[in-house]
Design a protein that fits this description.
The complex is a heterodimer of chains A (about 625) and B (about 375). Chain A is α+β, with helices and mostly antiparallel strands and about 625 residues long. Chain A contains 19 helices and twelve strands. In chain A, helix 13 packs across helix 18. With about 375 residues, chain B is mainly alpha-helical. Chain B is about 75% helix and about 0% strand. Chain B contains 14 helices and no strands. In chain B, helix 2 crosses helix 3, helix 3 packs parallel to helix 13 and helix 4 crosses helix 12. Chain B is globular and about 70 Å long. The chains are: A alpha+beta (about 625), B mainly alpha (about 375). At the A-B interface, helix 18 of A face helix 5, helix 6, helix 11 and helix 12 of B.
């Protein structure tokens, strides 16, 4: 009893205390604390230079490590041989093994050639290096190329080829892009089960033997350069590295699902890619890899949820994405301590600053849209079991973009964009304007129209606000019912409901016919916005403006417009102001109303502060500046 | 406030200056200016605006010299600058005077806007309710911080500027260019005299110094002053010129709300004959943003005067206080009279005196402390 009373007291205290504390906080002085909001700071030119220098330095360190590892291997072989000679264990077999080991060391010595070292030493792009005879070295290069261990896409499998002198083998492939059954049966089984009986086979000879006898697969390509290897891995092949060989084998074991995986249902387009994400996270990341074939595409995996731990992935392009944005999103994900993450939508809210009204991440079911955003420097988030990717940082204008815009000719695409903005404006303001004009500022309506409205409204017994609210509510009911009713019935209910309800409401003199038109246009307008959730946010904001309009007419509309705009201005999507690049203005104000021309698109969005600002170093349509071949032939 | 050091750009600076001064054009300012100098009222705005630009640039110059000499070029708040130039007591007086100027302007603008809203848009409403609406909106925006206010102000500055230009264009068929000729005014001496007094209508431009630490650098501040005042001069002169060309000077001084009257004269077609209702939105948004900015700087200067670190409690209370004070004047006529006296007598004198005091203080301080930056350069 006492404890219950105590609990009650505590509860009462906490409630009143809460109100008291809030009131106290509201009116009294408190020293300003540290700013908790994350702001994506400007990347200075110096920082960019540091990034490039660090990359170059990394390459130098890498080469030094290579030399040291080579020296260590020589020392190991020599010590081993010395010990065997001393103990008298050096028989013919051991000599044969030693010969093979020395051959491997000779192969590696060639790589230590000062000329080649100095070439690779100065080469920042390690993707242009050649395959090393050392498996350790190859693993390190792959790790650097694919940003391991952060990147969870690249899988490395190491094992030994049985024989007199077991040879170390390493497979590299992207998870989700290969057919695992094919990989097991055509690569792992033969290589692991068959005994390697060749004597003294090393390097090229071993690779020949493997291609001829061990790999029962149609296509096996031989690679010496990493640029070919990465291309092969990125396209879904599995690449085999053999210790002691300067060659790698690329085996076609592609197994990612492409067109058959599902069609975009929400973000439909007439042209362009029709693919959509599925429920499998790995399949989704594979789809992205198939579309963005770069070693810089990184997928970091996190497990979120204490009881039901789910895989959540963040995907970005290393070298483009802003480092602090990446760190911040990782910090937020690691800071989520929930029992369960239901889906990507709720996960997006868990790591968003603002949970009210306007979404600060774009959700998309289209891999092509994600790829385009990643190339601009954004980060994608995905959750196992959810076919939607969430993109951040974004601005409000991005919500009005559709992948199809880039497929269309400039005037048509820009027209579509303008139509969407007008749609959003209508969805926001049309019912409020109607109420303001009908109830407060009827002098603004042309006389003929005013008389017509008065004629319609004379039989309607309700004030205009109630009339509008009833119709909006009916519209929302139809929308919700259409969504919930299964199959083709949903569409029929929507159409029949709208027509019958509208017609009946007018006949019953509950609403005026003009209002039905106003609400229908408003409802349609809210659906022209490609992002479903922002349309919803606009419809919710509409109620605030409606209320203000019914109380203060256009004055109320003006004041609430300021408040809504201020609300938008206060939002930051992963540290980027929601209204950029206009409010505040940044140096690349493109891609808002009209699709930018290629020249102006050469820079990535300034507000994202990407590591690489320049998107394309040369004009992308070089042929326009060149002379036609036909004319050259004629002249010659 | 949420604006971090060095985050504000020239656009923000321009918006700040323009939105503090432009919305007065929607109120009694054209009427008062035409009353002062007749047909040359548009020229009055050009001359006084340029004078204010010169004054502000001089203060910015002193500020630059001061921070270079005493703070290694690192921008300091306006309070620290005044404190360092004329001492603690003098600074307290200057800051309090400017707090009062911003606060009184907030109160007067609030009352004028509320009265005009009542007359033009909400005849059946109550003055108190309208004042309360504005006051609550001010509190909401002020609590979101300067960053949000400035971004909102930037959009609505464009809307206000667009409104002025569209109004001027829409009246093209009612123009009589002869009314604009400056020699039809009340004389050049009169124009010169009122140009000095009209400095008061530009006095709020001093706010640019209050946000100095948030601006990117002194160059940004200087460019903000030049461009902000230039745009405002152009828009004010354009609006007053349009009013004079439409109404001439006989009718103009009699009307309290000339912008609204002039918008009512727009007749584009059968379906666009009464656009004044739409324009209510333009001047309403501009006016509200202007009041919010004035209130913000009143609070900011008050906090600088008494070295209050947290502005939050004042942000909650000051709009309420302004609303109560706005109820005090008897009528809109009384408000306009107080406003005219305050802007054209008190604010203008305070602007000039502030410059003189700061200049004198700075030179005295320079003489006492080794050499000035300017001297070392030479």
């Amino acid at each position: 009893m006492d404890s219950l009373r105590e609990e009650g007291v505590i509860l009462q205290h906490s409630q009143t205390g809460n109100i008291y504390t809030r009131l106290k906080e509201y009116f009294t002085y408190s020293p300003p604390g540290e700013e908790k909001t994350f702001v994506l700071a400007e990347t200075s030119e110096k920082e960019r230079q540091t990034y490039i220098t660090r990359k170059a330095l990394g390459s130098v360190v890498h080469r030094v490590e290579d030399v040291i590892n080579g020296a260590k291997s020589v020392a190991e072989v020599m010590e081993d041989a010395e010990a065997k000679f001393k103990n008298g264990e050096m028989d013919a077999d051991e000599l044969e093994k030693l010969k093979i080991q020395i051959e491997i060391l000779e192969q590696r010595q060639k790589e230590m050639d000062p000329m080649q070292l100095s070439y690779e030493h100065g080469n920042i792009d390690i993707g242009r290096q050649t395959v090393s005879a050392s498996l350790l070295e190859n693993k390190a290069v792959l790790g650097k190329l694919y940003h391991l261990p952060q990147n969870m896409d690249l899988q490395i499998r190491e094992f030994e080829l049985k024989g007199k002198l077991p040879v170390k083998i390493m497979l590299g492939y992207i998870d989700g892009m290969v057919d695992k059954q094919l990989l097991t049966t055509s690569l792992l089984q033969p290589l692991m089960l068959f005994e390697y009986e060749g004597e003294g086979l090393v390097g090229k000879n071993l690779v020949d033997k493997m291609v001829k006898n061990f790999i029962p697969h149609i296509q096996a390509q031989r690679f010496t350069e990493y640029k070919d290897i990465t291309k092969s891995i990125n396209s879904g092949d599995c690449v085999i590295f053999i210790d002691g060989s300067n060659e790698a084998l690329g085996v076609d074991v592609k197994g990612y699902k492409s067109r058959g995986i599902g069609k975009a249902e929400i973000e439909k387009t007439v042209r362009g890619s029709q693919a959509a994400f599925g429920e499998s996270l790995r399949q989704n990341t594979a789809l992205l890899h198939a579309m963005l074939q770069s070693t810089d595409l990184v997928t970091e995996m996190f497990q979120v949820g204490k009881i039901n731990a789910k895989n959540c992935a963040i995907i970005y392009v290393e070298g483009i994405v802003n480092a602090s944005a990446k760190k911040e999103i990782v910090r937020r994900i690691k800071g989520v301590k929930r029992d369960d993450v239901f889906d990507a939508g709720s996960f997006s809210q868990m790591i968003a600053e603002n949970r009210w009204q306007f979404p600060e991440h774009i959700s998309t079911e289209r891999p092509d849209r994600v790829v385009a955003s990643l190339m601009q420097g954004r980060i994608a988030m995905m959750v196992e079991g959810d076919p939607f990717a969430y993109l951040a940082p974004v601005n409000i204008w991005d919500f009005f973009h559709n992948p199809e815009d880039y497929e269309m000719r400039l005037p048509a695409a820009s027209f579509m964009r303008i139509l969407r903005y007008i749609g959003a404006f209508i969805a926001f303001f049309l019912p409020s304007f109607y109420i303001s004009l009908v109830s407060f500022h009827y002098e603004a309506i042309p006389t003929e129209l005013l008389l017509a409205i008065a004629g319609y409204r004379q039989f309607v017994p309700f004030p205009s606000l109630l009339e509008v609210l009833m119709m909006i509510f009916a519209f929302e009911l139809i929308r919700e019912a259409t969504l919930r009713v299964p199959g083709p019935l949903g569409g029929s209910i929507g159409i029949v409901g709208a027509i019958i309800l509208g017609q009946a409401a007018v006949s019953a003199k509950i609403v005026s016919p003009l209002l039905v038109v106003v609400i229908a246009i408003t409802g349609l307008s809210s659906y022209v916005i490609p992002e479903y959730r922002i349309g919803f946010s606009i419809r919710i904001s509409q109620y605030l403006i409606l209320l203000a309009a019914s109380m203060f007419g256009l004055v109320g509309v003006a004041v609430s417009a300021i408040l809504v705009f201020a609300q938008l201005a206060a939002i930051k999507s992963l540290g980027v102001p929601f209204l950029t690049p206009l409010f505040p203005k940044t140096s690349t104000v493109t891609d808002i109303l009209w699709i930018p021309s290629n020249a102006s698109e050469m820079r990535r969005p300034d507000e994202l502060n990407p590591k690489r600002v320049q998107q394309k170093r040369t004009p992308e349509e070089l042929w326009r500046t060149q002379e036609p071949e036909q004319r050259k032939d004629d002249e010659s | 406030m949420t604006y971090s050091t060095g985050y504000m750009s020239v656009n923000d600076g321009i918006t700040l200056i323009a939105m503090l001064m432009l919305p007065q054009i929607f109120l009694s300012e054209p009427s008062i200016a035409i009353g002062f100098v007749g047909n040359s009222a548009w020229l009055l705005k050009v001359i006084s605006g340029l004078l204010m630009m010169g004054l502000l640039l001089s203060i910015v110059g002193f500020y630059r010299e001061y921070i270079t000499k005493f703070h290694n070029g690192k921008p300091v708040p306006f309070g620290v600058f005044v404190d360092g130039t004329i001492g603690v007591r003098g600074a307290r007086v200057v800051l309090l005077v400017w707090t009062a100027i911003f606060e009184v302007q907030t109160v007067l603008t609030l009352r004028e806007f509320a009265d005009h809203t009542l007359i033009t848009a909400l005849q059946s409403s109550n003055l108190l309710i309208i004042i309360l609406l504005f006051s609550v909106s001010m509190t909401f925006l002020l609590s979101r911080g300067l960053e949000v206010i400035m971004r909102t102000a930037y959009l609505f500055f464009l809307v206000a500027a667009f409104g002025v230009v569209i109004t001027a264009l829409g009246l093209y068929n009612a123009y009589d260019m002869n009314h604009l000729l400056p020699w039809r005014g009340f004389g050049l001496v009169n124009l010169g005299e009122y140009s000095i007094l009209d400095l008061g209508s530009w006095s709020l431009g001093l706010a640019v110094l209050c946000i100095a630490p948030s601006l990117q650098d002194i160059r940004t501040m200087r460019r903000s002053v030049i461009l902000g005042i230039t745009y405002t001069i152009l828009l004010k002169a354009l609006m007053i010129a349009s009013i004079i060309m439409v109404f001439n000077i006989v009718v103009a001084p009699e009307r309290a709300l000339l912008f609204y009257e002039v918008v009512q004269a727009i007749n584009l077609s059968q379906y666009l004959q009464r656009v004044d209702s739409i324009f209510i939105m333009i001047w309403m948004t501009g006016g509200l943003i202007s009041m919010i900015l004035m209130q913000f700087f009143a609070i900011d200067l008050f906090c600088q005067t008494f070295r209050i670190k947290d502005e939050k409690p004042l942000i909650r209370l000051m709009p309420l206080f302004s609303a109560v004070a706005a109820i005090v004047p008897n009528s809109v006529g009384g408000t306009i009279q107080i406003s005219a006296f305050f802007i054209y007598r008190v604010a203008s004198v305070c602007t000039i005196l502030t410059l003189l005091v700061l200049a004198a203080g700075y030179f005295v301080k320079c003489r006492r402390k080794s050499t000035c930056v300017g001297d070392t350069k030479s």
